[in-house]
């Protein structure tokens, strides 16, 4: 007889974090004691268990397990301000989880309200980003810095960008600085104008926002540039001057003079001398309008003085006079670092591909290209023009600048009829393409051009298997979601985590988008390694989404395919989600279903200390014969009296469930689902040869010959005399032979 399965050390640590996330204090204490090994260093043993730097307190905080937090903070005294690999503290996890009580508890017990993550974003920034007014109030009451800076400005900047007028009002009531400048000229008022949030604009003006702005880019110019008539009127009514004179130019020259290299042709290198020189050059240009050198020098001088528009005018004239002169292209680009800059620099590169001055001038256009997970586009020197074109193309998609985007697309066109493939192949280091970026930033015109004119693949995935549809769902843009669905986006495409678009929207609590997906034919009971959409909604406590799914006849008792996953009712019972429990029961969920250990929902609720959940389940649960006192208190006392579940038994039961689910998935020809199940099972017991054999079979059906061979060889190493292991290796080699025939 084969020895019983044992959990690997990695599995034990995962179970500890899982218990913390689920709030199962009894299981957590038992596993922690085992990890400690009787050395009396329980705190150190628990703190050593991390997933990418996130420990048990992070997991408990994110899921609102306040009782678990109390044990960790007050009994074990773990570090309440410990940060994960990206600098996020348990408080940040609690803020992202949206649990007000947990946030308040952590703050009351020493959590630093201003400790930022690696991006410089403190809990206050993230609360505003989430639009969570209640958590925002708690943080401010506990002393969070209302004007703390981050990579995207202050909390007020974020409220403006996200159009969260409710959060903005709270921040302003707490005396947030409405004139704080970020990135040269970016005030909250400019941010509100750029995202067209009239409510936020009015709140900021009422709070005393400076309608003059900073430098030459004023709120009035921003409104006029974007064609925002209502905003323009609002600013004028508030006293904005449409005829602001250039009174500050002399001061700008005074600031620039000490750090500017001397211009050889300016004999009097002083503030007055430079101003006089520029004026003379303007006169010279007027006298000799066909002298390209004069206009180029004039553009350079205006640029040094900060007169962007005047510099651009002279540079335009210079290019008209000398269209084949690369320097003219550079001057025009440097004069106005906007979409016109890209035009000028790109034209200059075509004339002189090796011109480093032009290349370096173009690169600042890309400095704001978003960094994902701390990475940016790699700088490629071979060939420089193509690399720059691709960088600018992605930046244009991100900014929604269709004119520049089209120009870069044309530059990639080699006339071979493969333009869509070439545009689709332009990716950043995380696999993000133009359509991903445009969808994430809600740039519908760019998406329209990509999908309908270029006909790029609407279901193209990044390195995580995410499509543009997932990005549109994440930003909550209903119009973008509808557009992508209307143009062929696949609702059933599964990402690397085993989630479809409906799973993702349900887990994120995007009610309207869930309804849109269902109206467009998304399969409500799609069963993947992530469970069903109902499971995702229940696990994340999305009451409103659960109701929507059940109203659309989701299977309330659907089994869940995946290691360590349970049906929605058991999940809700373990978390004490009373509203969800009621909805599930009303929809016909079986209260007598059992988990992998044979426990019913009412027992699971009792084990997790969720009395209210027990009270709801009690009237509809069949009596358990082993419980002599069939009352709520009797059930609680019965569960407390039961012996601890041994870790080996838990692993054994979980593995048995996984093997059963894997066999069922293979029987139904769901080889991708089965592969994911066996992968999770192998993580629990990497010494089971049958798991590698079964996963090798899945890889074969998925056409992954190399992976099938690797699993088959692992299987043979464990059981060299097992005929099935030899068979698996042989079939894998045959597949590879068919894929790569000998010449």
UniProtKB/TrEMBL annotation:
Keyword Ligase: no
UniProt-listed InterPro entries: Ankyrin_rpt, Ankyrin_rpt-contain_sf, Cul2-RING_E3_ligase_SR, TPR-like_helical_dom_sf
SUPFAM superfamilies, alphabetized: Ankyrin repeat (SSF48403), TPR-like (SSF48452)
Region (Disordered): 360-381
Signal sequence coordinates: none
Pfam families: Ank, Ank_2, Ank_4
UniProt KW keywords: ANK repeat
ANK repeat residue intervals: 86-118, 119-151, 151-183, 215-247, 464-496, 497-529, 529-561, 564-596
PROSITE patterns: ANK_REP_REGION, ANK_REPEAT
Basic residues bias (residue ranges): 369-378
Listed name of the protein: Uncharacterized protein
Organism: Oryza rufipogon (Brownbeard rice)
Lineage: Eukaryota, Viridiplantae, Streptophyta, Embryophyta, Tracheophyta
